[in-house]
Write a structure and sequence with these properties.
Elements: H1 3-14, E1 21-23, H2 27-37, H3 43-55, E2 60-62, H4 63-70, H5 73-84, H6 90-100, E3 107-109, H7 110-123, H8 130-144, E4 151-153, H9 154-161, H10 178-192, E5 199-200, H11 203-216, H12 222-236, E6 244-245, H13 246-252
Antiparallel strand pairs: 1-2, 3-4, 5-6
Length: about 260
């Protein structure tokens, strides 16, 4: 987990309603948590947080103030960006990605990134100025386009947006009993069946495949994703309708659902 993601995880414990600030009275406890989470040993950080609390007029600590003390400049940018563009799961991420990586090359250009970000912000009812959108685009390209070829790949964007923990990691598919496995499967399928149709299709399959691939090959490419998706459809899509029905996926995972 990167520093920005770790910071947000700790911040969420003290600001569960996402007000963007925490009360000064919680600063000591927050300070202990964040120092431990980020592996800090520098007493200077704690002193700066203490001074920030002492000088706060309302006794509240704003997230951008705290982040500027705790995080490096680049991580600070990512933290504030992610708060504006929260993604709940891989299905949503893959749906937007596929729209801009139409040729399944596994890459999007800087121009496509700008449209991607605009689309993402609109979906979360966030309105920003053209100048700020341009700043976001340039900053992200500068931070993540390491070979300076003007493109970002699937993994770059996944790291930028900091998707929540791989959902499949929460469940043990080799659970001891058939009942436990069936319970886990129902939760897994419901998570990816965003459209609630009883079948995974399009971005839902992509989201499931992405999480599956990360369990065995963390740095997947767009080509890897498509290859595994085709293999999964070939194996699971018994009626060849381009979808994975609930019972089809269950059989692929070695589980027979009760009628």
């Amino acid at each position: 987990m990167d520093s920005a993601a770790a910071f947000l995880q700790v911040w969420g414990l003290f600001d569960p309603n996402d007000h963007g600030y925490i009360e000064g009275k919680h600063m000591d406890e927050f300070s202990r948590h964040i120092v431990k989470k980020l592996g800090m040993t520098d007493k200077l950080i704690e002193d700066r947080l203490q001074r920030l609390r002492d000088t706060s007029a309302e006794g509240r600590l704003q997230i951008h103030q705290v982040a500027s003390i705790v995080l490096p400049e680049e991580e600070n940018f990512l933290l504030l960006f992610r708060r504006e563009t929260p993604l709940d799961n891989s299905v949503e991420f893959m749906r937007i990605w596929r729209r801009y990586d139409a040729d399944s090359s596994g890459f999007i250009s800087a121009a496509e990134l700008k449209s991607f970000l605009e689309d993402l912000l609109e979906q979360h009812n966030k309105s920003i100025t053209p100048d700020k959108l341009e700043l976001y685009t340039k900053t992200i390209m500068k931070m993540f386009d390491k070979n300076q070829d003007g493109h970002l790949d699937l993994n770059d964007l996944a790291r930028i947006l900091s998707l929540k923990e791989n959902f499949l990691l929460k469940f043990e598919m080799d659970a001891c009993s058939q009942k436990d496995r069936a319970r886990d499967f129902e939760k897994i399928f419901a998570h990816y069946d965003v459209s609630k149709t009883g079948a995974l299709e399009g971005p839902e399959v992509d989201g499931f495949v992405k999480d599956m691939m990360e369990l065995v090959k963390p740095n997947l490419s767009g080509t890897d994703l498509d290859r595994f998706k085709q293999a999964l459809l070939s194996h699971c899509d018994v009626n060849r309708d381009g979808k994975i029905q609930k019972n089809e996926l269950a059989l692929c995972l070695g589980l027979k659902l009760a009628p």
